[in-house]
Specification:
By secondary structure, the chain is of the alpha+beta class. Helices cover 27% and strands 29% of the residues.
Length: 113
C-alpha cells in the first residue's frame, strides 16, 4: 500500500510538487550543474525543508558544504560518509577500476528538527 504513495521527480519537478503534501522521507542528489555554490545548495535544501514533515528524514548526496548549510537551516546531520567509501561504489570500482567521482561527494542523512 505504501508503494502507491512514493513519488519520483526530477529536479525541475521539485518546483511542481503540490505544496499541500508533506513527506516523511526524501532521497535527493544535488545536480552537478548546481556546483558547490552555497546559495544554490541552500535553495535546494530550503525547497526540501518545506516538503518535509517535522522529524522527516533526507538522504542527500552532494558536496561537503551541505553539512554546514543543512545545520544552519535547521537540519540535524545524523551521519555522513564520502561516496567513494560506500560499499556500492567500491563494488562499482571493481568492475570499472578507473571510475572517478567528484571530489568531496558525500552522502548525508539529515533530519528536520
Amino acid at each position: 500500500e505504501w508503494l502507491s504513495r512514493i513519488r519520483f521527480v526530477t529536479d525541475e519537478g521539485l518546483h511542481d510538487l503540490d505544496a499541500t503534501h508533506s513527506y516523511d522521507l526524501v532521497y535527493y542528489w544535488v545536480p552537478y550543474d548546481s556546483g558547490d555554490l552555497p546559495n544554490h545548495l541552500a535553495e535546494h535544501l530550503m525547497r526540501i525543508k518545506q516538503m518535509l514533515r517535522d522529524g522527516g528524514h533526507i538522504f542527500i548526496v552532494g558536496p561537503t558544504q551541505l553539512r554546514q548549510i543543512g545545520s544552519s537551516l535547521g537540519f540535524l546531520v545524523c551521519w555522513e560518509e564520502p561516496v567513494e567509501q560506500l560499499p556500492t561504489f567500491r563494488m562499482h570500482r571493481t568492475i570499472l577500476p578507473k571510475a572517478r567521482l567528484r571530489a568531496g561527494l558525500t552522502l548525508f542523512h539529515m533530519k528536520k528538527v
